[in-house]
Amino acid sequence: MKVILQPEEKEIILPKIKSVRALLNKLNLYPTQALIIRNGELLTPDEKIYPKDTIIVRQITSRG
Asked: Which domains does the chain have, with CATH numbers?
C-alpha cells in the first residue's frame, strides 16, 4: 500500500499491513499522534486497510 506522510509529503510503500493499528505500530505512532485518512475519510485504529489503498498519515502536533 502507498502511504503519504504529512506534513513532509513523503511517500513510502508498506506491504502486508492489514489494519490502521498495525500501520501506526509500524510507524511508531500512537493513535493520538496522527490522523489516518483514506479517500477523504478518517479511519479508526480498528479498521482494516488493503494493499491497493492510498493512505494519508497526517501527524498531529499539540501546542499548549
From this structure: 2-59 (3.10.20.30)
